[in-house]
Specification:
heterodimer, A: alpha+beta, two-stranded antiparallel ribbon, 3 helices, B: alpha/beta, 8-stranded mixed sheet, 5-stranded parallel sheet, 13 strands
């Protein structure tokens, strides 16, 4: 009998998050499910030590399945795999 | 009285006329589009747009707004045209280097379309002038390049409920959204309640920008403004923020935004509206650092060398020049016999970047700021027999004081 594949999410890195990680997106296995959205910043930062990602995430917003998540709802949301998560960080240049 | 069926219809049956006969030929290509029509053109002709910023975003946006026949355009910018702007700020010219950008863009737009009214406002947007400027226009475009002005502009537009087409871009990515639209559209503060930390509020000058990237976002801003002003935008559409990344596949993605926040300090319910801090620079974490000036700071007795002193050291036994700029910048120009060691790598592991046998480490960067960080990190590693110093003012100072042929970028 084969083991169940761990549930995955797709993470979209935008602007400063993309500069920090060097990629525009990636698929990531969740370490457990349900996975609280509020723990995602720490989990992603630990994958990119010695980068600016942790700082970027402190001031970024999340989108889940192409819909922005208001800050007060972050604590209530859990991921079960299959979601597309966007890291929405403001760009100031122009 | 009898009328002949061959006569043209009476005036009452005639559609309204555009201001000039030539306008039919000039705008015909857009008027024959079904939802746009004569009605769309008449609305543009009677519309007024405030464009804040005549830089990388503002230039392409202004170009399309003027070409489309928006009747009244006001351009706000206090900055002057610089050679380093011309790679992306496509309304300005070599001949107008040193000219105010609002004035320069006005000259360009009048050449493009002499039948519209273009007004330059060659001053910075402030808490004092923003309300009246916004109130005098139907819609505003945020084409600015800094977080404090973005919050000021959005707060003012949101309170007056003047739609704000917000664009931003740097390096290879950007985003655009229509804010403060209708009664329930969110404002910039609803979407981003807290500004990014100053260290991450880099400008195009510091982190770079590919010209066509601001072109994409600026053109989209003009398009959204034209859609709203001409009446062809779908008012029932949920607000979205559109993200563009030139290297991502697909390059465009959009995210649905929530409606206006009831507790927003700018546009929330009356009870939630705070007296907004008028000091937007402080709200955004203080003034943007003046890296050129900071890189030149050197107290007497510190381990910083001027360019002439670095020149004396290069080539001497045990001397080693570490260049801590990013890889792309090291590829543009560098000192002879210098070694590339990017800042992050040096800070993470100083030992790995000091060659065996080196006794005199000279750290250099572009302006003389990162070199101090790197030199401190190497000193803190306490490597025996190694003296660490860095170049005051960076390679910019090297070009100024030692080698006038050294490229400045």
């Amino acid at each position: 009998m084969t083991a169940q594949p761990r549930p995955e999410i797709t993470v979209l890195y935008f602007a400063a998050a993309s500069s920090a990680t060097g990629r525009t997106h990636e698929c990531i296995e969740l370490p457990k499910t349900p996975f609280p959205l509020r723990d995602l910043a720490g989990f992603l930062s630990s994958r990119y030590p010695n980068t600016t990602l942790r700082k970027v995430l402190e001031r970024s917003q999340w989108s889940v399945d192409a819909e922005m998540v208001p800050e007060e709802e972050v604590n209530d949301l859990t991921l079960s795999g299959g979601e597309e998560i966007g890291i929405i960080c403001p760009v100031s240049g122009g | 009285m009898t009328s002949s069926p061959t006569l043209i219809a009476a005036d009452g049956d005639q559609p309204p006329r555009l201001a000039h006969l030539d306008d039919y030929e000039r705008y015909g290509r857009q008027m024959i589009i079904e939802p746009f029509g004569l009605q769309g053109q008449l609305r543009l002709q009677n519309a007024s747009v405030l464009v804040v910023g005549a830089g990388g975003l503002g230039c392409p946006a202004l170009q399309y707004l003027a070409a489309a026949g928006v009747g009244k355009i006001t351009i706000v910018d206090h900055d002057t045209v610089d050679l380093s702007n011309l790679q992306r700020q496509i309304l300005h010219t070599e001949a107008r280097i040193g000219t105010n950008k609002a004035e320069s863009a006005t000259i360009a737009l009048r050449q493009l379309n002499s039948l519209i009214t273009v007004t330059p406002y060659p001053h910075a947007l402030t808490s004092a002038n923003a309300p009246a400027l916004l109130a005098a226009h139907d819609i505003a475009l945020d084409c600015t390049d800094n977080a404090p002005t973005r919050y000021l502009l959005s707060d003012t537009a949101a309170r007056a409920r003047i739609p704000l087409v917000s664009g931003a871009a740097q390096q290879l990515a950007g985003h655009i959204a229509v804010l403060a639209l209708g009664t329930d559209g969110p404002c910039y503060r609803c979407v981003f309640p807290r500004p990014p930390p100053p260290a991450l509020q880099s400008s195009c000058a510091e982190t770079g920008i590919l010209g066509a990237v601001v072109g994409v976002i600026g053109a989209l801003q003009a398009l959204e403004a034209v859609k709203i002003l001409s009446g062809i935008a779908d008012a029932a559409e949920q607000p979205r923020m559109l993200f563009y990344d030139a290297l991502a596949a697909p390059p465009f993605r959009s995210v649905k935004l929530r409606p206006r926040r009831k507790d927003c300090a700018a546009c929330g319910e009356p009870g939630a509206r705070a007296m907004l801090d008028k000091d937007y620079i402080r709200f955004c974490g203080g003034p943007r650092p003046d890296w050129l000036r900071l890189g030149m700071l050197a107290d007497a007795g510190t381990d910083r060398l001027c360019a002439a002193e670095v020149r004396e050291c290069i080539g001497q036994l045990g001397a080693c020049v570490l260049d801590v700029r990013p890889r792309a910048e090291f590829g543009i120009c560098r000192l002879p016999s210098s070694t590339h060691a990017p800042l992050d790598a040096v800070v993470a592991d100083p030992h790995a970047h000091v060659p065996v046998g080196a006794t005199d480490v000279l750290v250099v960067c572009r302006l003389g700021n990162d070199s101090q960080v790197a030199a401190d990190a190497i000193r803190a590693a306490r490597i025996d027999g190694v003296r660490v110093r860095d170049l005051v003012g960076g390679l910019r100072a090297w070009a100024r004081e030692v080698d006038p042929e050294f490229p400045v970028y």
